[in-house]
Structures are given as C-alpha cells and as structure tokens.
Amino acid sequence: MSPAGRVDPYPTYERLRAHGPVVRTGPVFYVVTGYAEADAILRDARFGVMDDGLRDQFMPGWRESPAVLSISRSMLRTNPPDHSRMRRLAAGAFTPRRIAAMRDVVEAQADELVDRLLAGGRDGAPVDFMAEFAYPLPVGVICALLGVPAADRPLFRRWATDLTGVLEPEITADELAVADRGAGELRAYFTELVAARRRAPADDLTTALVQAHDSDGDRLSGDELLANLIVLLVAGFETTTNLLGNGLVALLDHPDAAATLREHPEFAPGYVDELLRYDSPVQLTSRMSTEPSRHGGVDLPPESWVIVMLGAANRDPRRYPEPARFDPWRPQIHPLSFGAGPHYCLGAALARLEAQVAFPLLLRRLPGVALAGAPERRVRLTLRGYATLPIVVGREAAPVTVPGRPPGAPGRTP
C-alpha cells in the first residue's frame, strides 16, 4: 500500500506467493495470488461483491459519500439478481457483432490521433502519449456509444481520475473528498445528459437506458441509471487508457517483438493478450464469501474478505512459465485482467479491439517512436497506468505490407 509498492507491486506479489496461492493476512482478510485459485473464486457463486449490509459494517457513513454511493448503485458493485438485471440492459451495446462493426470507427480515430502525434512531435519535440493518444482514443469510442458530444470529452479525464480513487483498497479522508468531487461532477453532467435525451432521444446507449428507466422503474431506478452511466463511461476508457500506456512501454522495451508486430498486424490479438497478462491495467478486485469454501488449501469462512490480485495471478509460474518474460508466443494466454465469472468486464472485447488496432498502427506509422524521458506512474494499485508518458515520434514511415509469417517466428500465431 506504500507509494513504492503501488508503483511496482510485482516484487511484493512474489513475496506473498511464497506463502501459498491463498494467504490469510488478518482475522477476515485473505489475499489470492494463484491463477487457478483467482479464476475459481471469481466464478464461485459463494462469493460476491460487497453489498449494502457489508458496507454498513466495514464503511460506516458510506451513504454520505457521492463516490461510494455512485459505485455501489452500479452493476460493478451489485450482486444477482440486481447485477444481472442491470447488466442485461447495457449488454446490447457490446455484442460481438456491434463491436466488430466499430473497427472502422476505431481505425479512423486512431489514424487521426497519430496525425496529431506527428504534428505535435515535429522536429523531435516530445509529446505525452497518455494525453494525446491513450486517453482520447478510448474516451472517444465510449463517448460515441453513450452519445456524449465530442466537445465534452476532455472534461472526463480529471473527473474519472478523481472518482477512481474510491476503487483503491485503502483511501484516506482527503482522497475520498477528491473522489466525491469527481463523482459530483460526473453525476451533474449525466443528469443534464439524461434530461437532454428525454427531450430528444438518439441512437445511443444513454437513450436506451433512459427509456428502460422511464418505461419501468423496476428495471432501472434513477440512482442506478446515473451510477451505471458513470461506470460505463469511466470503465470504458480508464482500463483501455492504461492498457495502451503499459503496452507501449512493454513494446518499446522489447524491440524485436515490436518489429514483428509492425510487419504482421494480424498477430495483434495474441500480443494484446500477453500485454494484458504482462502488466495488467487492473491489478485487483475483491469478493466477500457468503458460505464456507476451500481454495488453495485454505478454508475460507463466511464473510471472508478476499482480495484477488489479478496482476499476481497473471504472473503465476504454475500457469505461465517464466512469467516475468514478455512472450506473445505463449500458448493459451488467458489473462484475468478483465476478471472472470458474472462480473467479467462487459467492455472487454471493445478494449481488446482498440488495442489490437492501436499497437500495429502506432508501430507501422511511427517506426522511430521512443521514450523521451522517464514515464511517471500513477500512484495507484487497483488501476495501474501512467500519469505521463513522454515520447518522440520520429518520421512517419511509408506504407509497407509484408505478407506471410516472419522468418524464424515460432509456430503459434499469437
């Protein structure tokens, strides 16, 4: 939980792992570092997210916090049947067919952002990859789904950064005040957007959720409407922004792998899965047990609070040999970065699509891209990413198409 531990948690994960895949760290607290155990707990119906009763026990006064209240009324922090009911209402925007149909939009936005990187980085000037590409690409995509006007999109980065502090395992009173401020701004914004969609419906997810609320309040309450719009927005870009930043640094640290992806963009799906495994944009989630269970040789009584360390599970050597090595040619890469089970990330396919488009495009058009200084990590554990990532872009490459498998490449297509 220290600043140094949040910036680089991986050594701590290995010290925890030495005690076993499930470790008791307090009277009711357990930490999971094993891949198989994490996957099993996330799928186990005897575990759920913290509900109102448990929040009353562990977080007295939580109803006075706009940030905690917003998150708690969304599908992110509710259990069945409420979770299932809310998730079904939003799921139509994330079907495989609709995600596949968005590829052209994502490619066009990514190309435009590379143009901006080239313009800003002319004559070797450093540009901040996070501000100029990693944030605007996913926020533009999720805002288009929600029907948020393009002019409003720059507002959300600070509000979301403030709000997501409430997702950390520990939060100070000052940090909670900052999160409450972000939640207040987001609630005010979406209150206005909901009113606008009532006056003038559009073909977007906000309109669909407003109509679900207005036609039958039992399907979606007013608090749930605002909470889910906020979570869909924030989750829709925060994790992808971190994936893009973490992934670019990993590729720059592994130039041979980057060169292969530059020439063979069809390998992007395997690369993205390995990037998710190697440095997960989401490092942890938590569950509460409702019944006795046993995982990793450890008995977990009811009301155990289990911290599932996704970043540690993704580097479990029992699942991935040499886990600290970046290797997009690994067989059977199935990272837990988007979770598993009922709470598996609704937008996982969209995040993957954006990264699968972005990385080959960046490497192809910017073959000379390099770090322009030391990146600055955000001092967060749950959502792992960079605050700033200065790069130089070099000259734009001429278009080149190289068909077929690269000489000497391993047999598996990543």
Description:
The radius of gyration is 21 Å and the shape is globular. The longest helix has about 30 residues, at about 220-255. It has a single domain (about 5-390), classed as Cytochrome p450. It has a five-stranded mixed beta sheet, with helices on both faces. β10 and β11 form a beta hairpin. Helix content is about 50%, strand content about 10%. α8 (about 105-120) crosses α18 and α14 (about 220-255) runs parallel beside α18. The chain is an alpha+beta fold and about 425 residues long.
Quickly count the helices: 18
Secondary structure class reads: alpha+beta
The total of beta strands comes to: 12
CATH architecture call: Orthogonal Bundle
Q: Low-confidence runs (pLDDT<50, min 5 residues)?
A: 401-412
Percent range of helical residues: 40-55%
CATH topology: Cytochrome p450
Distance between the termini: 35 Å
Largest sheet: 5 strands, mixed
What order do the helices and strands follow? HHEEHEHHHHHEHHHHHHHHEEEEHHEEEE
Q: Order of strands across the widest beta sheet?
A: 1-2-8-5-3
Principal-axis shape:
globular
Any idea how many domains?
1
